[in-house]
Amino acid sequence: MDAVERARFLREELEKHNYQYYVLDAPLISDAEYDRLFRELQAIEAAHPELCTPDSPSLRVGGKALDLFRPVRHVVPMLSIRTETDDGDSGAFAFDVRVRKELGLGEGEGEAPVEYATELKFDGLAINLRYEDGVLIQAATRGDGETGEDVTANVRTVGQIPLRLKTSVPPRVLEVRGEIYMKRADFERFNARAQALGEKTLVNPRNGAAGSIRQLDSKIAASRPLSFFAYGLGDTQGWKRPQTHAGILDALAAFGLPVCEERAVVRGAQALADFHRRIGEKRTELPFDIDGVVYKVNSLELQIELGFVSREPRWAVAHKYPAEEACTEVLSIDVQVGRTGALTPVARLNPVFVGGVTVTNATLHNEDEIRRKDVRIGDTVVVRRAGDVIPEVVRVLPEKRPILAPEFMMPSACPVCGSAVVRGADETVARCSAGLYCPAQRKQALIHFASRRAMDIEGLGEKLVEQLVDSDLVRTPADIYRLDLPTLAGLERMAEKSASNLLAAIEKSKQTTLARFIFSLGIRNVGETTAKDLARYFGSLELLLAADEATLMQVCDVGPVVAASLRLFLGEPHNRQIIRQLLDAGIVWQEDVSARERGGKLADKTLVLTGTLPSLSRDEAKAMIEAAGGRVSGSVSKKTDYVVAGAEAGSKLDRAQALGVVVIDEAQLRTLIDS
C-alpha cells in the first residue's frame, strides 16, 4: 500500500474511531492503538505535506496561532428566538395560542392540534458549520447574526464534530447550526487538573466553551474538553431537505453529527407543557447545562407560512426554567469601575454552589438597588444565577442580620483613580468623571479613540490596545503619539513592517477634523452626529471648552443631559490635560467658521428629511443642506425649522404637522438654497 492509499485508510479509520468514542461513547480500540494510528498518519503527512487534506484527523491537535479572526458573513442569518417569560405551563399554552392564531386555526376542543418538535436549549456557544461536498471547510460564530468570526481551526479540534460527513452522496453545500458546550464532568476534571498544575481555571462550562473557541491558539482549544450538538440548518445546496424539523435532525444524525436524544415530536399545548415539566425534573441529572427547552413547529411548510417578526421566527420559542437559588453570607461589598466609568457594587460571598457552579461574587447593580434590598456586610442573602449565568442577590434574610451592621455608602471618589463620582438626577448609575484618565476605562477609551469614525488609526485594534495597556506603554490617548519603532517592533506578534505601518497611520491621524476629535474623546451622550453639530456651531475647540451649559444648549438637539455631560467631562482637569497633550502631539484640523458666523442660506437651520424625493437621494439632499450651512436631523422636534417631505412620508411628517413645523418639498428646498 503506497503513501496515498495508506493515508486515506488511516484518515477513514481514525474518523470511524472518533465517532465511536466521542459520539457513541463506545470505543472499539484502546487509546494506545488509536495513538499509534494517529502518529503513523502524522508521519506520512510530514513526509508528504500534499497528503494533508482538510478532513485529516491530524488537524484536531491545533495548528499555528492566528493573529485575529476573519469576519464571516452568514449566507442565512443566525437569528435568535423569542423567549417565553412565563416559566410555568402557561408559557407553552401562550406559544400554542400565538401559532394557532397566525395559522388561522380555531381554539375549539375538536380542532386538530399543531405538531411540534421539542428539544433542549443548550448553554454554550452557537456555531455554524459549513460542509462542501461533505468536507468541513468553515466554522463561524453567530456574532451579530449577520456576521460572525471564522473559528475553523479551533472547531476542527472538537472530536464530536466530523471533518467529513458519513455519506457517499453528500450535499453540495450543507450548513449545520449547533451548540458547542462543555459537559459538567469534563469541566470539573479540567479545573481540577488546572488547579493542580497552578494554572488558570474556567469560570463555568458555558464560558469555558465560548472562551475555548475564541482562542487565537488552536492548541489551547484542542486541550479543552468540548462537545457539540447539532440542532438546525443554515444554507443548503444540492440537497433535498426533509419536510419536518424532526426529519432534519434525523438526517443530521445519519450524516454522523451528534444530535441530542432528549427530543420529541408532540401535538398540542399540553404536550409542550408536559415536555417542559419532564425535562425540568431531570435537569440536574443531565450531563450538561441547559437553561430551558425549545419548541418549534415541526412542519417546514408551516414554518415558512408563519415567517418572522422582528428578526425572530414566529414558529419557535425558548421556554426557560426558573433560576436556581441558594443562601450564603455577604463577606464584603466592593465597588467595580466598568469600561464606561459605571460604578457597580459587588457582593463578595461566602462560596456557595448554585446552578452547577460555585458562586463567590454577585452583582448588586447600583446604589438604588442596594437601598431597596437593604444589603449590608454580614447579611445572609438569597443568591440566584440570573439566566443561569450572572449571579445576583435576590433578597436579604433580615432575621439573620448581625447587630449594628452598617448601611452601604457609595464612594464619592472613584476607587480606581480618585476622580469625582457623579450621578445624574434622573439616572440610577454613578460614574467616574475621568473618562480619558481612569485606568479602569483606559482600554475602552483608547479603542474608541482609534476607531474608524474617530481618529481612524488603522491597525490599532482591540488586541493591540490591550497589549499596549497591559505592558504599561500607553495610559492615555496622548501616549499613542509617543510610540516609536523599537517599542512597537518589540511587542509580541508585531513585526517591524507592521510597526512601521502603524506609526504611519498614527502620523496620518494627526490631520483630522474638529468633529472627529470631539467624537474621539468618548464624552458620554456625545455621539458622532452631536460631535458634528458642536463642531459646526462653535467652529473651534477653544470656544467649545469655554462654553457653559446655557451656551451648549443653543446647539441643535443638545439638551440638558448632553450639556451636563459635556461640562462634566470638559471641566475635569485630567481630561483637559490630556486634550492639551493631544494638541501638543501635533493633532490639527482646519479651523472652521462657526455656524453663527458662516452666513449660509440655511445657517442655524435644522431640517429633517422624510419620504422619497423626486430627483435627490437622501445623501445628496443632506450634502446640499450642509453645504448651505444647514444641519440634517434624524428626528422632528420643536427645534426643527423645516421638514422636507417626499413620496410615502411617514410618522415624521405626522409629527411635523402636529408640532406646526414648516413642511416643504424638494422644489421648495432648492428655492431656499438658491434664493
Name the shape in a single word.
Answer: globular
Mean pLDDT: 85
Look at the structure and name the CATH superfamily of the domain at 433-591.
Answer: 5' to 3' exonuclease, C-terminal subdomain
Distance between the termini: 89 Å
Content-based structural category: alpha+beta
Question: Which stretches are low in confidence, meaning pLDDT under 50 for 5 or more residues running?
Answer: none
Biggest β-sheet: count, sense, barrel? 5 strands, mixed
Strand runs, count: 26
Question: What is the number of helices?
Answer: 26
- For the largest beta sheet, what order do the strands appear in spatially? 2-13-10-3-9
Under the CATH scheme, which architecture of the domain at 433-591 would be assigned?
Orthogonal Bundle
CATH hierarchy, class of the domain at 433-591: Mainly Alpha
Please tell me how large the radius of gyration is: 30 Å
- What level of helicity do the residues show? 25-40%
Fold-level CATH name of the domain at 433-591: DNA polymerase, domain 1
What oligomeric state do the depicted chains represent? single chain
Strand content: 15-25%
Q: Topology, pairings included?
A:
Layout: H1 3-23, H2 31-47, E1 71-73, E2 82-84, H3 89-103, E3 115-122, E4 125-132, E5 135-141, E6 147-149, H4 152-155, E7 173-181, H5 184-196, H6 205-213, H7 218-222, E8 227-237, H8 245-254, E9 264-267, H9 269-281, E10 290-297, H10 300-306, E11 308-309, E12 312-313, E13 316-320, E14 325-337, E15 343-354, E16 357-363, H11 367-373, E17 380-386, E18 390-396, E19 421-422, E20 431-432, H12 442-450, H13 462-470, H14 477-480, H15 485-489, H16 496-509, E21 511-512, H17 514-520, H18 528-538, H19 541-546, H20 549-552, H21 560-571, H22 573-584, E22 588-589, H23 595-598, E23 606-610, H24 618-627, E24 631-633, E25 642-645, H25 651-659, E26 662-664, H26 666-674
Parallel strand pairs: 2-13, 21-22, 23-24, 23-25, 25-26
Antiparallel strand pairs: 1-6, 3-9, 3-10, 4-5, 4-7, 7-8, 10-13, 11-12, 14-15, 14-17, 15-16, 17-18, 19-20
Helix pairs in contact: 1-2, 3-9, 12-13, 17-18
